[in-house]
Amino acid sequence: MGTQNPSVPLHAQTRVAGNKHPNRRPGAVHRTGGLQHDNTRHTTRFTVIGNHLAQHGELSLLAIGLGTHLQSLPKGAPADIKTLAARFPEGATRIAAALRELEAHGYLRRERVRTATGRIITRTISCNQPASAHHRPETPATAVPQRREACEDSGTHHPPTAREKRGRNGAAATPRKPLPAVPTPAHPAPALLQAATDLLADLRRHDSRLLLSACDTAHLAPGVAAWLERDVTPAAVRGALTADLPPEGVRRPAALLAHRLAAQLPPPPPFRAPADPPPPRYPMRNCDGCDRAFRSPTPSTRCRDCRSDLQEAA
Length: 314
Description:
The protein has helices at residues 51-54, 61-72, 81-87, 92-104, 131-134, 162-165, 190-201, 203-206, 214-229, 234-242, 253-263, 304-313; strands at 108-114, 120-127, 147-152, 284-286, 293-295.
């Protein structure tokens, strides 16, 4: 009777509180209600959106919604700020900020491309996997890229990215591509080439963005000379080279001018028959008989009237 049972607890254990349970996360609150889903399976007109975008921890609600909208658009749909501002009640400032958020987190990529007419446009690429914007793996030619492209003429200027400046493995970037070929005149006279060089050097006075180097000017001069040789006035050549420049600026003015000189080269002037030569003008001389001035193809010393009088007298 004096020996105590060691398996019996000394006192009754208290129940652990719900918010201090070891299997419950700190700060979690047990709720009996909350969101419920009434789902119906989609068979047409639906888009698969990853939870990494829909439940992103750093993107704003506007950026998440805009990213979802961009992934639902078909290829080639306009996706510039002006079009999105006309589609949604949010203003252009908030939409531009949301696009920058998506671009910073890898859901959006913008590339500047040149069309066949020389116009520079911005291509917007929506990525459904954020890692593909920064670390795109090497894929075979038959693989289908997981992206949708939407091209728009937004005209927004973007500075070159680090990948454009350096190679894939950190090596120096490849040298700049050579300038496009320009037409050449049929008769490259020195005076004609000098006039073309002066016209190119004067372009910066009309548009400061068209400041050309000496090497670029030497490459473009034959193309301008070909225009001048075809009876195009210097003012018309200057207008063709400076008209409708991109408002955001020109990254390489010489390449744009070379493209325009080749693509917009006018046809040769129409054939014109040579005009009849003017009648010859004989020198003036004075008549020895009447001292009257007259012109004559023969070295005669008397005018026609005096010659007639002499013939009658004879």
